[in-house]
Amino acid sequence: MVCARGDSAWSARQWGAVEWGHAPEVALGAGVDLPLWIVVRAGLAVTVPRKGFVVEFDVVIAGAGPNGLMLAVELALGGVRPLVLERLSGASGEQRANGLVGQVVRMMDRRGLFERLAGTAGPPEPAPMFMFAAFPLNLAQLADNPVYGVLVPQRKVEQVLAERAAELGVQIRRGHALTGLSQKDDRVVVDVAGPDGVYQLEAAYLVGADGGRSMTRKLAGIEFPGVTNDHTVSRTAHVSVPGEFVNPASGGLRVPGYGDIPPFLHHRTERGILVWAPFPNGSPLLSVAEREAVDDASPLTIAEVRDAFRRVVGADVPFGPPAGDGPPLLRRLIGGNTRIADRYRAGRVLLVGDAAHVHSAIGGPGLNLGLQDAINLGWKLAAEVRGWAPDGLLDSFESERRPVALRVTMQTEAQSVLIGPGPQVTALRTLFGELLEDRGTVQRIADLISGADIRYDVGESAPPAGRWAPDLVLHTGSGPVRLAELTREARPLLIDLTADGGYGAIAAPWRDRVDVVTARSGDAGDAVTAMLVRPDGYVAWVADGDRPDGLPAALTRWFGTPALN
Ligand SMILES: Cc1cc2nc3c(=O)[nH]c(=O)nc-3n(C[C@H](O)[C@H](O)[C@H](O)COP(=O)(O)OP(=O)(O)OC[C@H]3O[C@@H](n4cnc5c(N)ncnc54)[C@H](O)[C@@H]3O)c2cc1C
């Protein structure tokens, strides 16, 4: 806990670029009543500080985007008091993600947020189909399909998380921007510009969740190495098209002299790639990307989008302005960045989400990565603030999550190459397509894009230690319960599957911070007799009969020395 003084004046890449990511997000966001290629089951207590006030916060979070809000929720569940600063006073109106894809969907279920996001009761179901580099992946053939998805626009994700944060008493100050910081031995001093002027705050920790251009990152002196791609332009627009250009059965685009372009799928030619997304309740969205020098000074027009379509497809369609009300999307993006912060922590300053990594949005991996950063950090930072974190716990945030960001940038870069123009890429695609005929390759790609292949270093323990805890159904004295229903409060959980509850007794000294459930499980595997699950949903330790004595060491490693003896 920090005592603040408040004594001063109050102070995409493309072929990969962001826009390419629009294609899968479009597909995800298309609504369940369309003939989709993917089917998924898918209060603010604002205080206005004035000069002379003393403010105390455990953690200040810069940025109320999805990742800052998620972190605020996790910290509040962990029993610490975050303050969220958001530069904007209202909604940005920017259209970004239309869906969540991957392990994060199951994580939302584990926090009791799936239903609020999806609008349907859980548990989530995996998607039978998804895209990788404009290749359709038949996921229904997999015995273990990890690709979960939810159709939900990013603004709704932010709204749900803001509501949850408010329920937990988190304070969010909108219209308050972080403008400076300085670190002391025991705290961070944060300069803020708010509607009533500038002021200072002090907190034990500052987390930058302030997006790809993160001021926190820059002020903390954290480098952001990577590459900038500036030779691809993508254009996205709401359009209209005469009825004879639409296939009434599929909703696809009928292109004279070319053929049908299916809806909601990446469509690659040797000159570029496009997505045609005829939304049921609104104007169709067309996204076209190509490599081309372009003058970015003038605003994008429908005529320019039509010209780009003609170049990429080699045929003309008379696209016009969209019908109906509402501001149409008309967006041109040039180039993009693939960058990862060289460290996620500088003293008492940490980074999550886009502040720590930016990459192509192809396949929609951004929120799967960023929200799980926040969930990985939340319980560790809460433990640090509350004083029970074992040595090295907070640093394991970077050692666990930075490699995950490297995997995401690897796969989005690979996809960006595979959807690029030219005959050599066509040859590469032919080979890659043959490899995808092998079910094992599809499983591998599915694990990669969902994040199901993550294995954290948790020391010696039997599988699934280090991995995502399986979605077990546990048979307790009060009936069956899903693991996801026992993790809503973000507390560590020991599942004791022995008849005598012996492991639960070993964990008794940690009961202030570790929950214990004694149960039978039909799906944990006969060998597994106990499992310790971290608050972020990963298995810290497993008893498989061979190593029955490891529990105290695992509890101490992750949850510190016991408070109760
Ligand atoms: C076109 C597009 C499509 C995308 N599609 C997908 C998709 O389909 N699926 C997916 O998972 N991801 C997608 N993404 C990526 C996803 O949108 C980002 O990963 C996500 O927004 C990152 O969240 P964040 O909270 O880290 O940062 P942001 O969402 O950028 O939020 C940062 C917040 O910090 C605030 N802020 C900035 N500076 C300050 C300051 N100094 N002080 C206080 N507040 C500050 C900003 O106003 C903002 O509200 C897409 C992105 C784009 C651009």
How would you characterize this protein structure?
- The protein is of the alpha+beta class and 565 residues long.
- It folds into three domains: 18-226 and 338-414, FAD/NAD(P)-binding domain (3-Layer(bba) Sandwich); 228-336, Alpha-Beta Plaits; 473-559, Glutaredoxin.
- Helices cover 26% and strands 24% of the residues.
- The chain contains 13 helices and 27 strands.
- Strands 1, 2, 7, 8, 9, 10, 18 and 19 form an eight-stranded mixed beta sheet that branches. Strands 14-15-16-11-17-20 form a six-stranded antiparallel beta sheet, sandwiched between helices.
- Strand 23 (493-496), helix 12 and strand 24 form a beta-alpha-beta unit.
- The model is unreliable at 1-55 (pLDDT under 50).
- Residues 18-19, 21-22, 25, 62-68, 85-88, 96-99, 154, 177-178, 209-211, 215, 353-355, 361, 364, 366-368, 370 line the site of flavin-adenine dinucleotide (FAD).
